[in-house]
Each structure stands twice: as C-alpha cells, then as structure tokens.
Amino acid sequence: MGPFQSLVLLSFLSTAAASEEWCYASQLCHNPGCRDPRNWFVVNKECGGKTQSPINIVTNKVETDWNLTPFKFENYQNVQENKWILKNTGHSVQVDLDESAKISSGGLETTYRAVQFHFHWGSNHSHETAPGSEHTIDGERYAMELHIVHIKDQHKDIGEALSNNGVAVLGFFIQTGDENKDYNNLISKFQDVPYHGNKTEMASLPLSSFIPKEEDLSEYYRYNGSLTTPGCSEGVIWTLFKEPIILSSTQVQEFWMKLYFNKDLPMEDNFRPVQSLGARTVYKSDSNALLPRAKTLLLLPVASYLLLSFTQ
Ligand SMILES: [Zn+2]
Asked: What pLDDT, on the 0 to 100 scale, is given for residue 120?
C-alpha cells in the first residue's frame, strides 16, 4: 500500500478511535470528539440497556425485602498482606485490592471478594460546590460516592465475573461534615497520581476504616443494575447504604484539586446521570434488626389467647 493509502487508513483509524472514546460531559470542552454519557450507547450498546445504573431512589416506592439481612464482612478489619495500587484511571481514582476482603449474607447467594474501590465526585466553580454522587435519594445528590467492587469468589477476575452476572458493588454516600482522619493517608497520595495512567503503591489499610461502623450498615437499598461506566455491563447487584461516610469539605476538595482527567483539565463531575428505573423494583433491608424478636413478643399474647381458648 502506498503512502497515501497508509495516510487515509491512519486517519480513518484515528477517527474510529476518537469515536470509541467515552468521557463525562465535563470533558467535552477539551475533547469535543469524545462520547459523553448521552452517547455512551455508541461506545457500547449495553449502555442503552433497560437495567442501567445509577438510578434515583424514590424512598416511598421502595419495598422491604426480609431476606436483606446485615452483611458479613470478612477481612474488612485487617491490613492486607500486599501493598495497594493507587491509580488514576482517567475517569476516577482507584485502589486495586489484594482480594482478601470478602462479603456474604446481605441477601447475596454466595461469598464475593473485594477487587477494587474508587470514587465519584462533583466540582467547585466560582466558590459554589456541586455534589457528585451517582445515585440520588428522592432527587438529592450527595457530595460523593464510594464504590467497592466485589466479584463472586468462584470467578478468576472481573472480566469473567461480568460475563456471568458475578459482580456486586457496595455503594456508600459521602456527606460533608467533620474531618475523617482515616482518609488522610489515601488523600495525601493523590499528588503522586495526578494524570491518567499514573500509578503508585501505598501501604494497605483496613477497608473498614473507609466506611461507617459495621453496626450502622444494616439499613440499605438493593436493586439490579449495571456498571456506571462503559461497557455498562448489566447483571450487577447494587447495595447502597443509608448511613453516609463523613469527609470534611476540605477533604472533598482534594479530589478535584489534586486529580486531573488529563493535563490542565481537573477531574470533576465524574458521575453518570441517573438512568430510568423502568420495570425494576428497589428493595430495602429490614429497617429494624430487632424486628424478629419484636414480632415474637407481639405473637406471644396471641398464642396464649389461642391456647387458652382451645383449653376452655
Ligand atoms: Zn463507580
């Protein structure tokens, strides 16, 4: 093939690559050719599916599912053996885990292991802070959202899990308030991963130090959705805990001040707009863990009454 044909082929390939590239709306000004969330279905057909995430949770339409018992957290309290890999993925800041932390119960049919966690956040323009959680509750958006991605223990990696409905994500809302000292170590490493592709190692920390206390995690929402970035694979089991993580507004700011999509473009508003719920139902856990006992107490007088009426 001559140089002209090569040039044509090259330019065709680079155009094709650009059209495959996905981005958040906040990146459009720097990269007008990229596909923003409204056009992610062009990048991957599944992004236009019927059971996509995130969603808005309408609390008065949520149904209680008595099978949604508290989670069993295994190795969440421990420092992991291997170092953590902290990286800028170009869309978020992510920590790859050594996969020793596990979850079970919580209405899950089997044990899942934690493979990575990452965050979604908002922005700050002219001193106005805009929140950036992906899920919303009755239309309200939280400051940020933490996703801990888990795969069924039987799968070898996330790819295998995604093609077998084997992914469960624990989602935690982040609200501003007091400083959370447990986050300072992680946040201080952001300066080492400002740009897409940057990676660094850090001493591992107990996963439990990043989330609310276990006894505050019995109340949560559950629905079936998808990954919130392309390829938007469906069959993901979502859990969103009611109890938020608290970070100070200064800590939240560190995310968009230290991290960049690419040079000169701060990583901001890296959340997908909410998707339609469609025919799905959102469930919630039993809001009163003591309820089984309370029910017994209520039933006792009825049982005694029946017993009495039979013996009479
Ligand atoms: Zn996420």
From this structure: 98
